[in-house]
Amino acid sequence: MLITGANSGVGFKTAETMVYLGAAVVMACRNAEKAAAAREKLLAEYPTAKISVTPLDLADFSSIDAFAERLPDVDVFINNAGVFHRRGEKTKDGFDLVMGTNYLGVFYLGEKVLPKLAERGREVAYINTISIIHKVARVNFPRFDDSRGAYARSKLCLARYSRYLAEEYGDSNIRVYMSHPGIALTPIAAHFLGGMNALSKIVPINSAEKSSLAAAWILANEPPVGSVVGPNKLFGGWGYPKLNRTCRRAKRDIEPLIEFTNKTIEARSAVSRAPASAEGRQENVV
Question: Which of 103, 108, 126, 151 is catalytic?
Fold first, then answer.
């Protein structure tokens, strides 16, 4: 089993749940130091557990390429890593950091690893982590990479991409699902809602532990491919996981998004591969 962003929040608790259930876990993380510390924390509780760490930065296509080359042989692949509210910051490839990590990075990763996983023949559960906030998002291609509203937009795009993958790999060994944590006590939610501890005394908020159970629910119940699994109370905001209704916005305008995403990534990749101009090379020499 491989979990991206497994060093903190719901990702860490998902890793802990799976280790407790006896799974061998690969923690794919951007920050090697934090990942190593998270691994040691798990091993302190489960000394015989099989836990490894591999580098993966979804804000860097070259990191994704390197990861895909050494792709572990796994039967569960959970895309949990994500960022929130980084206005003005960019990925290594020049995209808005939130949009570039949460959607474009996950898209690029999926296009790299899923064909390889499909060739191996073993059944693989491929789980993309979305958010309930995707239900209020809109996708405007001219403002696609705008940092305003990027988190919600990135999650709506990821939901549409997941629906696309479920159809694309419907007759293969790949089973694509979506999960969401609801409103959980995580660093991302703290950025979004502000004073989480005070708010949790007024309205129900999930613990990271409870939100992390969605992946285990999927593996235990094997719902139809393309399903969404998340908390069962208050419009999916809190509670234990169950099968959720797929938002109508996630079901439409899928093909235009996939076409636009491919062109966007190809155009940026072409720029990064282009040789410097003669004038630019001379400036670099000087």
Answer: 151
- Evaluate if pTM is beyond 0.90: no
Q: For residue 279, how far is the Cα from the chain centroid?
A: 41
In this structure, which amino acid lies at residue 271?
V
| Half-sphere exposure at residue 162, Cβ-oriented, CA atoms within 13 angstroms | 35
Tokens read off for 118? 């499909």
CB contact burial 104-128 (16+ within 10 A = b; e otherwise): bbbbbbbbbbbeebbeeeeebbbbb
Residues 6+ apart with CB under 8 A from 12: 6, 38, 208
CB 157 within 8 A of CB 139: yes
Q: Is residue 108 annotated as part of the catalytic site, yes or no?
A: no
- Of 38, 33, 30, nearest to 7 by C-alpha is 38
CA distance 168 to 96: 28
Instruction: Give the integer Cα–Cα distance in Å for 26 and 15.
Output: 9
How far, in Å, CA of 25 to CA of 43, rounded? 11
Mean pLDDT, 10 residues at a time, over the chain (286 residues)?
95 96 97 97 98 98 97 96 84 95 98 97 95 90 92 96 97 96 64 51 71 94 95 76 92 97 90 54 33
Comparing C-alpha atoms, which of 114, 102, 119 is closest to residue 2?
114
Rounded CA separation 84/146 (Å)? 13
Give the chain's domains with CATH numbers: 2-285 (3.40.50.720)
